[in-house]
Write a structure and sequence with these properties.
This protein has about 70 residues and is mainly β. It is about 0% helix and about 15% strand. It has a domain of about 30 residues.
Length: about 70
């Protein structure tokens, strides 16, 4: 999912942009822009994309048998 080619353009994930806050990106071409914005020169950089935070694990949901290799 992080390395797919058909990603929606977003300044936060562009090669030309550097995130300076949660809502702003410093673009080499356009200056300070919105993190959710985009332009026609968008080039996807998968290393700038942050994966979603995993859901917390509920320890009460599992039993000792869930972790056993015995049939």
């Amino acid at each position: 999912m992080l390395f797919r080619k058909d990603v929606e353009p977003c300044c936060s994930w562009c090669r030309s942009g550097t995130r300076i806050s949660q809502t702003e990106v410093a673009c080499l071409r356009r200056g300070i822009v919105s993190a959710g914005g985009s332009c026609g020169r968008f080039k996807y950089d998968p290393l700038k994309r942050e994966p979603p935070v995993p859901a917390p694990v509920d320890p009460d949901r599992f039993t000792q048998e869930d972790f056993s290799l015995e049939p």
